[in-house]
Design brief:
With 157 residues, the chain is mainly beta. It has one helix spanning 130-150, and strands at 7-8, 11-12, 36-37, 41-48, 51-63, 67-71, 81-87, 98-110, 113-125.
Length: 157
């Protein structure tokens, strides 16, 4: 049974009360950090008490400085920890591919999508062979231009 005074899927359901009720209605975006639409490949590990329960692959849907929305290809339970290795679209010094390593907690999960709150993150260089490196160097600039276009970062006020 759902308590109508508690949030459900990020939305507040209003209880049946008279029109004079003083319950504030929360609308619009309430997140403090701007979210960026980025579809990036990732590998994930579901962790409990330092033990890997499951692992798989998926992709990001959007990112902010404090969280990631991802599609894991299957349902992931809320409250557990998730470790991610995200293929980053930009090369370090136009030479070395990067991976974003993230540890976080699953705060919301619906279907195959999960939202995590980041606890720790860092960029690491990724291993690659010379053929992959050449393809990454040409594709990196194109992808970065597309990301800037999608998120409106190239526009000046």
């Amino acid at each position: 049974m759902v308590n109508s005074d508690e949030p459900t899927n990020g939305l507040h359901q209003m209880p049946n009360r008279k029109a004079t009720s003083r319950i504030p209605i929360i609308a619009g975006e309430r997140r403090a950090d701007k979210r960026y639409t980025l579809l990036l490949d990732l590998r994930w590990k579901l962790v409990r008490r330092r033990r890997v329960l499951e692992s798989g692959t998926g992709h990001t849907l959007d990112l902010s400085s404090s969280g990631i929305l991802l599609d894991a290809g299957r349902h992931l339970p809320e409250g557990l920890n998730l470790e991610l290795s995200v293929s980053w679209p930009v090369l370090l010094h136009n030479v070395a591919p990067l991976q974003l390593s993230v540890s976080g907690r699953i705060v919301r999960s619906e279907g195959s999508q999960a939202a995590i709150q980041m606890i720790q993150h860092e960029f690491r260089t990724a291993k690659t062979n010379p053929d992959q490196l050449s393809a990454l160097q040409s594709g990196s600039t194109k992808l970065l231009t597309r990301v800037i276009s999608i998120n409106g970062l190239g526009k000046r006020p």
